[in-house]
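Duplicate of #3305? Posting structure anyway:
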């Protein structure tokens, strides 16, 4: 037994009931009764007509009995290792006293500054002595002999 739905009210249409209308463009509408058919032909919006299923769905009427509210899942927090640090290292740093952590940070900053200073001193003698700018420009610009293109023959093509 095939049970259809009304195109206007969305009520169930049992076999032997209802009316089918085929529009000129080929779209098929099935209506439960003349009331639904007339409302459709008058172009009434089923979402604004209170007795239709569309209205009841839009305005959340009578849905509480059928469906229970979904329970939201609580998020669980847990620790994971990060690239470059294992879980035990992360926990050890967290449990460390702030004074010890501050001392370690200062030591790391000092080491980075010393390393930067060492690289700076190593770079200084490596830089070449600059020559005059005019000599360099004259070397770069050398006139290239260019041939003139032959004139085009014919129209715009």
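Output from current build:
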């Amino acid at each position: 037994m095939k049970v259809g739905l009304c195109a206007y009210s969305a009520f169930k249409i049992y076999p032997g009931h209802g009316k089918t209308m085929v529009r000129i463009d080929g779209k098929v509408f099935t209506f439960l009764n003349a009331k639904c058919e007339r409302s459709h032909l008058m172009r009434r919006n089923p979402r604004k007509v209170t007795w239709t299923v569309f209205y009841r769905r839009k305005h959340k009427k009578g849905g509480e009995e059928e469906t229970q509210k979904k329970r939201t899942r609580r998020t669980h927090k847990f620790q994971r290792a990060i690239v470059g640090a294992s879980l035990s290292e992360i926990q050890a740093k967290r449990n460390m006293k702030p004074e010890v952590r501050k001392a370690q940070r200062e030591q790391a900053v000092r080491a980075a500054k010393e390393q930067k200073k060492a690289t700076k001193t190593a770079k200084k003698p490596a830089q070449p002595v600059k020559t005059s700018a005019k000599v360099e420009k004259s070397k770069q610009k050398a006139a290239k002999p260019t041939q003139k293109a032959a004139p085009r023959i014919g129209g715009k093509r």
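Confirmed duplicate; merging threads. The chain has a mean pLDDT of 85. The two ends are 74 Å apart (CA to CA).
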